Amino acid sequence: MKLPTSPCTGFASTVGLSRRRALEKLGLGLGSLALADLLGQGGSSAHASPTSTGGVLPESHLPAKVKRVIYLFQSGGPSHLDTFDYKPLLNQKHGEQLPDSVRQGQRLTGMSGNQTSLPLAGSPFEFQQHGESGAWVSSILPHTAKVVDDLCIVKSLHTEAINHDPAITFLQTGSQISGRPSIGSWLNYGLGSDNENLPSFVVLITKDKGGQPLYARLWGSGFLPSRYQGVRFRADEDAVLYLQNPDGVDRGSRRLMLDRLRELHEFERDATGDAEIDTRIAQYEMAYRMQASVPEATDLSGEPESVKKLYGPDVEKPGSFAYNCLMARRMAERGVKFIQLYHQGWDQHGGLKGGISKQCQETDQPSAGLVQDLKQRGMLEDTLVIWGGEFGRTNYSQGKLSGDNFGRDHHPRCFSMWFAGGGIKPGTTVGETDEYGYNVVQDPVHVHDFHATLMHLLGIDHERLTYRFQGRRFRLTDVHGHLVKGMLA
Description:
The chain is of the alpha/beta class. The chain has helices at residues 19-38, 88-92, 100-103, 142-146, 164-173, 183-191, 251-272, 276-297, 305-311, 321-333, 352-376, 447-457; strands at 68-74, 127-130, 135-138, 152-158, 201-205, 231-232, 338-343, 383-388, 392-393, 398-402, 405-407, 410-411, 415-421, 428-430, 432-433, 440-442, 445-446, 467-469, 472-474.
């Protein structure tokens, strides 16, 4: 018996396929419909029907406290001991050996693990309490100090990763092993977009910064369909590569070409059953719409000087952290759901005093300015702003300690991050480290707990947004994660 090949019927879309393959396609199709119906009251599946905005969740699991996220990722691991976690005992014991009772045999990196001496190093910066909350903030963060009453500072983050690549990957994807979807991809997959003319997930990287390398997989979609990956906006004439029409091709010609290309793609999809072709169609259409939306979104000429002043003098420099923070606000107000900023250079293994001072000079005012700008526009109440790196730094000197000229090695046992915006309890501090700034002693917050809380604020139960891949259901928080209730308003 020969299969029908007419393109006029649904079953006939199996052009060129064997009888066995056709039956498999039909069976899988019916099975996925049944599975979607069974899961209608529970989590989402890889085959769930998307909402009108492209997300697989027909509705949020919980009342959402925020609509969008701006994540200011400080790549390299800022020293918590020189920013937010004030430890006067380290200054008193400067130069003395790290007690074995504090270290407790915990592993060190290969860069300091072979040192015969681990001398404690106090911070070379002064700390003061600020705001009604009385939060301790280093003198190298004067602008952040002015907005502490809008922040929730978490001092008890911890991770298993002790080196940059797995630690950054863990913070961005929920796994130390590469290949998992990034946070923004999970949110894009679950919630879709609030603006059909811009990507739901945008990435901005500070230009011309050295430090630990960044990889596209950090904002990749992993095993999710590629339509959910982040789109990088560059600080160049072409903010998005390959977006503009080539010479001699106008917008009308591009539209005709895309219409014909869509027909060919749909014919191929119907013939092969390759769902990724739908992603390709969607990406072509998004690129076409972005030809008009991106130039408007990236044009800062209409921003008032009073607003630019909030972000500091570097805001006029395309690709600076200040410029990207202002861009993030513009993306947020246009409905982009997840905006990820990366700023490299926090890896002070030596020359900490000068290195971290420069980093704070570049990031302090823009970060605080972003919070102020969102607040005065009434957007902070439904935007979540996150600031932090992949781990902390050691309380001892890496290498020789010479006065205040020293460096700090990687330290996964504790580090600090701050949060501001909707659903966050402002003017609070969560967690505590010991008097040496080495171990968490109160309210530990694991990376999975951070991710679970982030998703909760967006209305997602982190245990229920899953994707079936290679025989198991994956989620951002793997099989862990608890809400950090102390952060929640």
